[in-house]
Amino acid sequence: MKISPEILNLVPYKPGKPISETQREYGLSTVYKLASNENPLGPSPKAMEAVKKALDHQNLYPDPSHYDLLQTLSQEWGFPTKQLAIGNGSDELIDLLTRIFCEPKDGVLTSVAAFNAYEVSAPANRAVIHKVPMAEGFRFDLPAIADYFFAHPEHKIRLIFVSNPNNPTGTYATKQEVETFLEKVGNRDDVIVIFDEAYNEFVRASDYVSAQKYINKYKNLIVLRTFSKIYGLAGFRLGAMIAPAEVVEVFNRVRKPFNVNDLAQVAANAALQDKEFIERSQQTCWKGLDYFYKKLEELGLPYIPSQGNFVMFDTLRDATKVNEALLRRGIIMRPLLNYGFKTQLRLSVGLDHENEAAIKALAEVLKEVPVLT
Ligand SMILES: Cc1ncc(COP(=O)(O)O)c(C=O)c1O
After folding, report:
1. Rounded to two decimals, what is the model's pTM?
2. Measured in angstroms, how far is the CA atom of residue 226 from the centroid of ligand 1?
3. 5-42+276-368 adopts what CATH topology?
4. Spatial contact of 85 and 241, defined as CB atoms under 8 Å apart
5. Which protein residue's CA is at the shortest distance from atom 16 of ligand 1?
6. Pocket of ligand 1 (CB under 6 A)
7. Number of helical (H) and strand (E) elements in the chain, helices listed first
8. How do residues 209-249 score in pLDDT, each as one tens digit?
9. What ranges do the domains of the chain cover?
């Protein structure tokens, strides 16, 4: 069997451990999953109501043009529908954009410790990933990324991915940094700049800006959003893209006609308009983060203040061992070895009782696993 070397060497994305698997493996009935930055409140109630009503016509294919959802997106986000597209999670958007813009051996540029999907989609589409080290504080080094792009024409970099805020670090690029970066790499014909803003709605930093503000200023700029986080629809698989009309047109040619199923379209349409739920989700996130910060400080564990719905912290120990001991206590956090972090874990905000259980278990485990010297 001949398989292309890029695919053979591809390291797959490692999702959070499912609750059912953890229950089975550890013989536990109660397991809390705080590993995948999901919305602990469940799906938007308005979305659930709409989905129940839509169940009776699931014998029919979904609307391949995504008409209703695009209309609502257009109203909510203020872009014409020809600049909007949706995919089967932002995962699909990331993958197809790589396929569309990269020829074999072309380069995809991002940061070290950026969201891992860019690194998976590049080789899957025969492209080559290039990563620039982070700046101090685990932040995207946008000036260094721009410098790398200009210094390496031989890499034929066609895509630059910036996750803002970034997962797993929770750090963000400021408005000033984003503007300076776009002035350098914006409006070029040879590269597309993609801002992945999956956590945009959770940001509290006053100097953050969504790159959607600059969509009409730079013809090579794309912004990605997801319904998996604030809208609580991760299981439905739905991501959205704001882009130049030409990009949307090409994307719609390449994507599968029924890439987003009917229930996902219906759910997202209702969730977009569920303002009460969005606000409640933000409050839950911020309250949970503040609780984690306080408790991590009490436990003496360094953490990075986060603009997402999760926090990355340093266990000061072998994180694999800490994680294993947490799993035995029914707490699923996210190990970050695949990002090169050996002592850190990522903890997603849950409901109050889940957050408390996670911290209680962590405090116990810290006594069990020795500090690395
Ligand atoms: C930065 C970032 N982008 C995209 C995604 C993927 O979202 P989706 O569920 O829409 O594929 C995630 C999910 O964790 C993420 O952290």
Report:
1. 0.96
2. 7
3. Aspartate Aminotransferase, domain 1 (3.90.1150)
4. yes
5. 167
6. 37, 89-91, 115, 163, 167, 196, 198, 226, 228, 234, 239
7. 13, 13
8. 999 999 999 999 999 999 999 999 999 999 999 999 999 99
9. 5-42+276-368, 59-273
